[in-house]
Structures
1.
Amino acid sequence: GHPETLLLACAGAGPYFLFEISGAPSANRPRALRLALLSGALALGLGAVLLLPLADVMPVSAEHVFRKAWYALQKRSEPPDLILRRLSAQLAPYWVGVPGHGNRLPGFAVPASYAGALLFPFAAAGLFGRQRSRWLFLGLGLASLAVCVKTPAADWLAKLPLFDIAINEYAIFLATFAVCALAALGAARLRGGDGTGVFLAAAAASCVVLVGLSARLAPQMTALGMPQAFARERLLFQVVPIAVAAAVLAAFGRRGRAASALPILVFLFVAERAVETFDVSPTLPERAFYPDFAILGRIPRGAPYRFAATGMTLLPNAAAVYGLEDVRGYEAMRLAALVQTFSLWCVPQSFWFNRIDDPTVPFLSFLNVRWVLTPQSVPPPDGWPVLAEDDRVRLVENPRALPRAFIPRFVFAEADPGRRLALLGEIRDFAERGVIDGDGGGAWQANGRAQVRIDAYEPQRMVLDVSAQDAAVVATSIPSWPGWKVDLDGHPIATLGFNHAFLAFRAPPGSHRVTVSYAPDSVADGAAISLATAIFSAFLLLRPRRLPA
């Protein structure tokens, strides 16, 4: 769902590699660089089956358009008081609110770098050790933290290509990684009998900071509606393991066996994380998920018609589990042209699905919506048959739903996108009228006489029988993502934009067999590259190696 994750992972791995190679003997560096370049090329080749299709569709997505036109131009940094608030959340995320225990401060959707308070003294012990790599982890952690808490470093990073459209706050995982790496170095010191003093001092400082900040931020937590007992519990989950760990290490240290305390400290850390996270995702019995709704059994599966529900009834992801083609959508990347039609048929909700309040709007009939689930408290639209009623919901059928492929009686060719959308807003019967891309002289024109029948239907392929007395535009309600192809009698033909965001084509006079299929060249090309790379990688892996003399 978040393509920038790959970008940010590479942004962290690159400095790590350069740091490691800078410490290698100079004679070994050229070979290491060659191997690194080869590894990078192999990684790109193996990932081509995913990367090429992503590059193919990203430019036509609404998210890319939005980020290039608006998000890339925005200031990423925030005032000092908000930066400090974000920093405090890295020490204890519950300070900004916990769902189910009051409200949550807006703007904190990205998780914090926090991975357990007991890591703090471990990380301090690692930081004050002698391992060269500690400086890398410190720099990597501070850099990612500076970006994620929105200091001016966030603005500097956003000036770089790709980073300008990426949500760079997702780089917070690098800060978590850095703390964990430093903590591992600290554990290694303790195992060697070193670092006890630093651990104990950092443990005391951590407890003082956590208690002090908790007291200072108590009014904020109260304002969020967080119960005081819950806030105290969260604080105890942090400071008690640190205090117990410090006491254990001090006791073992006095007997000269500080290293023997390490297994106990690790156990305390595991226990801390268990009590802090046990109720984050509570387990529920399997029967609680996606129960069998008899009312949905009235909808035939595999038929070339779509489904919708009104309001908050049966959210779209759930509909997909039941095998229904839900027109409302719920995707991380949306076709930009389709998003521009939302005002014609739904109420878009930021970062969520498209709510439908009125199932009778004409554009929904064009979108092939035949079955609609509504609350029983809402009367069925006039003339819509009621198929079933059960458990406070009602299933109704749209008698005006158009087939997935049909022949509009009149078409209007319009090249200007804004004018196309305006025309679509005026149409009340999409079986009668449709708008195609192009310049047609500014008038409605009669479409050719033709009939179309869907002979076979699959999610990514549809076979049509077209009988045309005249040359005609055959319209569909398939969103025109790159990669859709049309073959007429076994020969590829050009596609045509229809109703601003959908697929159509022109059929010549006569009887024709037409196949509409989703077969992006980028997937085929990417698969070929990935397969070739996999074969080459296997050759490199299996070839005989010379053993040193």
Note: The mean pLDDT is 92.
2.
Amino acid sequence: MTGSPTHCPYCGLQCAMTVSGRPGAVEIAGDPAFPVNRGELCVKGWTAGEALAHPERLTSPLVRDARGVLAPSSWESALDRIEHGLREVQTRHGRDAAGVFGSGSLTNEKAYLLGKLARVALRTRHVDYNGRWCMSSAAAAARASLGIDRGLPFPVEDIALADVIVLVGANVAETMPPLMQHLRAQRERGGTLIVVDARTTATARAATVHLRLAPGTDTALANGLLHVLVRDGRLDEAFIRDRTEGFERVRAVVASYWPERVERVTGVPEGLVEEAARLLGQARTAIILTGRGAEQQSHGTENVHAFINLALALGMVGKRHAGWGCITGQGNGQGGREHGQKADQLPGYRSIEDPAARAHVAAVWGVREEDLPRSGPSAFELLDGMGRDGGVRALLVMGSNIVVSSPDASRIERRLRALDLLVVCDFFLSETAALAHVVLPTAQWAEEDGTTTSLEGRLLLRHRVFAPPPGVRTDLEILRELGARLAGSRLFPTSDAREIFDELRRASAGGPADYSGITYERIAREGGVFWPCPREDHPGTPRPLESGFPTPGGRARFHPVLHHGPAEPTDDAWPLWLTTGRLLAHYQSGTQTRRIAALSTLAPEPFVEMAFSTAERFGVAPGDRVVVATRRGQATFAARLTDDARDDTLFVPFHWSGDRRANTLTIAALDPTSRMPELKVCAARIARVVKPGEVA
């Protein structure tokens, strides 16, 4: 194997790759020895090097001048502007007037130092990150039911060895193509794949059974499956008795979810509900995987609870080649939420309200426990309060394009414009950076060292392969400089990734996500190490639930949940459901992928996907442009007609901005537990059809 070993900058699979050549002529190869991707990469991974020397790359700080124009600036001047602005805002409005917004794409070291900057240098409770819109519902449900939040509490390789897989609300054929090899291997062994999705996606077409449910009806479907299993005596009664608690309340709830009722609610034929339940009930091993389709809802936590209930009732959780897991989206979506970016967390997945946790982390940081702030508002609530009394007046954004990715995005864009100071760290002038008062150019994935934690809880090393362009600094250098200016170099002594990781290890020691026994040397030597790993001679924990549940009583907990439906129902004025998602060629807000020629050619513009019957109903023909509206705004998309859509549902991808921004349409109704916005379902209508040759 030639080239420098590292990992892909995109999704939570963190596929291993080797990188060689030079910026502008980067050569990438998949690493066949890494068990997650086994040499495979998706088109985004193969082309990831093209962003490194892109002509739109930022190589100088930008500061908004008296004319309102972002103009090149020296680093010293830009940092002075930030320091002065933060101090002025906090002096006038209090410490909580400053805020920090991070990302699931940041390395563990960056996530850790960003959280430390918020709590130690700014001493603000206003810190959260875009992972709140990715993993929070699954995390909340997993912690309450199983006592641990780890995307997959088992290695990816287990997927190929399960008799039955239920994949809920995830189109991995487009979003995580290398994962499909494990599903193919499972099918080749004689296994069964059940896909739950409102659309007939590429993943659904590979399934044995496709349950095409109405958006927002996931809990009803899961309860219906469990109803059939209870009725037919297909439960693991011994597991329920010996290792769980609370099942009788769940049994009582699902008694009313008979298949005929479930068909009326979900649209899934009762025969398919019966068949899926039979396949699950007969399986020796089954894995249930949830994705954003089920989780990005105002009842996302309940949806996940319903599917965890199903896995527990079958006795699959903690069993080899079986269990429940969630498909982590962002590159460091797992590690990014473990070390201090979330409003309620300290490093090691500790609660910021726990006195013992506060004391431990304060001692590592060398500050007084009473000086640490308390828990703050969630991501959307933080952003929606910008510029208002008691809210954030100055915001530091690192690794997130809020203008494109936020629900009800026009509302959030207005709030960003109300800030006294907006600082954005990015390597391109994203839509969010274009609104900033100061933009700092940062290094990319192949230009710095650091660790990430994959969806399976495996710590991995990203190696620096190239030096950043002249004028560009790493995020760690930026965070260290700001921390030293605001709180002193004693508290922020270094920007070296390895030294920061060693501090993170100490801060995480004894916490649920304990990294203290993991070193850079071990990760390199062993190809990754699973947390928790409390000692350097500890082997790591690839299957943390195999030996028991880390709940207070040592038992997994069932949670009875009812179907409630979306926050915004359809009606005569808004007769269609709108759902959103990702495409093969693009990633998240598209800041990187929309600038890569090969990917832009594959998917040059967004579209609205609808059934032929829906198109006929609204007078839409191929080639038309369709103005889709919700109660929050409207956006324009090219029409794509298909047999793969329900006749009551529209689908649009969310990677674009401006008048093609899908999140102009989405609703910010929040899950009461996770504070996840309902990005995946809202009521919509076709407001206008623009025929070829007409002016939009």
Note: Residues 635 and 660 are 5 Å apart (CA to CA).
3.
Amino acid sequence: MKLFALFTNKAPTKVFLSMLLGIVAGISYALLIPVVLISIGSRIDQNASASEMTRTFLGFEVSNYKFALLFVSICIFILICRSISHVLLTRVALDATTELRIKTYRRIMNAPIAELEKTGPSKLLVAITGDVARIVVGATLVPNTVVNVVTITGMLGYLFLLSPDIFWFTAGAIVFGVITYQIPMFIGRRYFQKGRTKWDALQEAIRGLIHGTKELKLSKVKRDRYFSEVLLASEYEVLHNSKTGNTVVSAAANYGDLLSFFVVGVVAYIFVSYHAISTEALVGAIMSLLYITGPVAGILFALPNMSNAKVSFRNMNRVLDELSKENANEEIKPLPEWDSVKFSQVHYRYDDSENSFELGPIDLEVPKGQITFIVGGNGSGKSTLCKLMALHYTPMTGEIYFGNLKIDHEWLNSGRQYISAILSDYYLFDRLLGSLTEVDEKLVNRYLTKLEIQRKVTVTDGKFSTLALSDGQKKRLALVVAFLEDRDIYLFDEWAADQDPVFKEVFYYNIVPELKARNKAVVVITHDDRYFHVADQVLFMEEGKLIRTERPSLELKEPLVKAADSVA
């Protein structure tokens, strides 16, 4: 069982000790019934008085005190062994599942951006939150299941001593029950698997509800269709499969639970008519059969949860298998001095049957101390080109150079350290993740004031007071973070799209020229043709091709002269 291997690989010694204690506890459980039966069936020594067999404890008279003491001792021993076994394996299970989550975090962190985009956030979130939770639940049931299995085995051994005929009949009934029990369990697992696959679609539908509420409120038809055809459709598919799976599994569990009583009934009313068996053996056998109904019920209760855990574990591995480790050296090294970024016959294709878009081959140069605009219609390849410049995508053919240094897997992560990007799908963290000093925070507050968001957000101990900002304000705050990074390359994907006219002018006439003056390579994806004169070069994209490059006049309009009032 691969799920159990998750724990044995984590702490084999602890798992072995836990299983050993569980086996000992199960054997001890199996001894309780024989102790009680022997105690009841024992005859008082004719030469011993009743008082010699009785002791007073806490005001109570305890008959046959030696067996009572043995019974209590076994119970205490079971309590200790079972508790230690359960605590040990539960701790290992929690450690292992936490390690599995951390492994997933690292896999996501080290995976290529293109693969993460293809997998999608919904699958990743369901795997980390839902699947891991089910694995934990299934894992924590393992200790009790082991104890129950050993208890049943021990009681069957005792049955064999009482009556081999009853033992073989009971063993046959258990084999029959296990085989017939697996049929509905198999059907139930199939429904659980179907339900699990629908969780991804439901998660995506919920994300659409949360992020698209503003759009849905503007159209009752759109809202009603989304609610019924997308959200409720996914919800009911999950509900149907979960209901059906649980119904089948519950019926199977009840069938397995009652099977023990069927065996008791057959032994008590039919079996005795065909086999010679003493009353003492019959009483012992029935007590033993009744005793194992609890462990049987425990196993049947655990099996659906463990089955769900196996499904989740397989799904977790499937998601992880979809994410390869990026072929990039983790060591960060300073790059040799460079003055421009060059693309040489760079070609990129989306490896997706649903998206056959191709970019390139492209040749271009982005020098330091210059402003480069990338323009083109929707779907022309602007954002793809920007992600190639950010080194998020790696070319399928062609090369990217920083100066004379070719950026390959040896230099990929190192090259990224020179880039600051605010892409169209950027994420704004709630804190500054770089190292901070008091001076840094003063600088942050200065930038906030220059960008006129100082009344909306402040910085304390490197953490922003709020992210409840408009889209334009969030982008300004992201710009503050980019300024503090002080990288050599700045990439802006439609940064000014959410800004009012005043801040558009601030961006094009103050911010961008200031970065140029600091000898940064500035790349701006834009549709604002009225500001093209700000750029040193404008790259025109169409259907994944760089169709032409224009170099506007170096004389800038009057507002740019006001760049003395820069944000820096």
Note: The chain is about 60% helix and 15% strand.
4.
Amino acid sequence: MSASQPVNRPLFVATILAGSFLLFLIQPMVARMALPKLGGAPNVWNSAMLVYQALLLAGYAYAHRLSRLPQKRQATIHLSLLALAALTLPITIANLPPPSPGSEVWWVPLLFFASIGPVFFLVSAQAPLMQRWYAAHPDAGEPWALYAASNLGSFAGLIAYPLVAEPLLRLHAQSVMWSLGYGALIVLIFFAARARWRAGPAAAEVASEPAEPISKKRFLHWVLLAAVPSGLLLSTTTHLTTDIFAMPLLWVIPLAVYLLSFVVAFSERRTLSDLLTVAAPTVLLLSGAMAMTSRGAGLLALAVGSIGLLFIVSVALHARMYALRPAPAQLTLFYLAMSVGGALGGVFTALIAPLVFDWVWEHPLLVLATAVLIPLPALYDWRKSPGLDPGVARIAAGVGFLVVLILTYWLWQVALVPEQAFIRGILTIVLSLIGLLMVPWRWLFVLTLLLQMLAQGGYDTLRTSLEGARSRSYFGIYTVRDYPERELRTIAHGTTLHGQQSTNPALRREPMSYYGPTSGAALGLAQAQAFYGKGANVGVVGLGAGTLACSKLPGDNWSFFEIDPTVLRYSRDGTFTFVRDCAPDAKVVIGDARIELARMSGASFDILAVDAFSSDAIPLHLLTDEAFGVYFDTLTPRGLLLVHISNRFIELEPVLAAIAKKRGLAFAKRDDIPTDQTGLTASTWVALSRDAAIIAALGKARPDVPWAPLMAPSVRVWTDDHASILPAVRWDNMLKAPQ
């Protein structure tokens, strides 16, 4: 290629930006499309991310292999495959049979592979391939800054989805627009290929000297530096989507900051990257110390701390990768190692960890791995101070670590005592400062971080695991705790109470938590025979501890719908006895309730209670207009629907009011705030029916317990094709601790 021909940098930047924008726009879009099939369990997004990482690895491997061919052959093959993949557009979800219980961990990735595999694979290859083509010009210079541009495009695609695409466009329109963007990308790649058409084999054009050899050790180092941030990305996402809401907005925040870390780390201007690398050990000691805490989650401060930790340590680790980058001739091998690491981090977090651990132990393990790998800037090495004897430095370190042991013991004593929050904060800061003095000895630095983790609640988390109180499944983490002094047993999903039962035999049939005698569920179910006669048919979506079973009236026919076999096991093995004591003949259907209800014949139930939660999050696909269509298809014409909408972070009343208005339903709301707090929890239930007389009768059945109208309806009805939760977020509650 003649050096007189233009480098065309803007063309290659535009091509990379466009491809990366499309690549990361499709991720939340397809996950949103799949919600009606998959529900809102955090592992659904982790499974989706695993597929994306695997396809990204395949795309980078394809780019690496393709780059060894002559330039014309590269362009011909790549453009031909892009055109062939266009036949799979517009994007839709593959029509696979529903998964059998327990097979979700394999079925979900298969669904995503079948839905977007070809286009995602080819678009993922464009970033390294376009950089390779760009570097084929003798005057192009180093291409690494184009990778920063690639991640900037990825970040823009992610942010555009929840802020622009999801609120403004229906899913079909989103898919059509993405297809048009794909066509524009092919045009850009064509012009990029044309700009390098006369180049010989790319490897020969990048530099005159031979490609440097890459040792296995160096390749493995790249892989590890990429794997740890990738795993942290998924473990951070798990917390957010478990305890707030299963929605693309929260899926994309950790991924967005992860991508921004590449923008900073691969920038030609190193100032910000260097500053964040210097700050990383401090942030690791302050925020990483909370990585083993399993109680008191849900605070916005903790969420922001987790995301900040992810961003800063990702910048530090990716900046280390950048510092170890090879010559441009080995560009595609470098990106291949990066994608191998990303995929390994995803496999560990999304596949291995849920099978091996009973809690999210992958998160603190990855934080500790970060402490092992993170660059420790030389400015922390006070051993090199003028006139300081090495022996004195070692003695000082030993004394410092002894102080760490004493202070962590003190911190452990006060960490779970709310009244000691100020002392806890002071101890955390002091320990972090001492931890920075341990930086010259990495193993002491790591050990100080581990001790802080244990003191900040990690010991309690570890003890709960050793006691066998936890179970983990694809759908979440469940913790069963006994409180003998209160004669109480509780079950929590994530950090949210999902039910409790008295261990006193005389009281074990008494409904507790959200299902007390004045709750909306109890009031509605108590009228089953008054409204529909003896032998009323009642369905309950969500089993939990099985508390609602003790609202069953003699002679009625009950059915439970539960997605997770682990939850059912608690009722069958005697951990909770509500079902065995009060509804032993109840039918239990395992599977996604919406899918299972859609399979049933019409008018199957007189009353249907929807009480499905994933930690504090209500799965979005159970709150759309189509979902309510399924519910009312299974109800008799005068049937009663009860929906539990208690939620700290999302205001769901306007959502249900909009659906009720569209469908012409009568409705009422019961806010239950028990005056006797022993074993009872505040709750909000909404009753809906096609027959206004049923709702009126429900209000008159207990004049002493008032029902109220719902808030004004939201402007737009949530549908499978179009739902935006931004207007419903309770931003003020994000700042409050859970009650």
Note: Residues 200-209 have pLDDT under 50 and may be disordered.
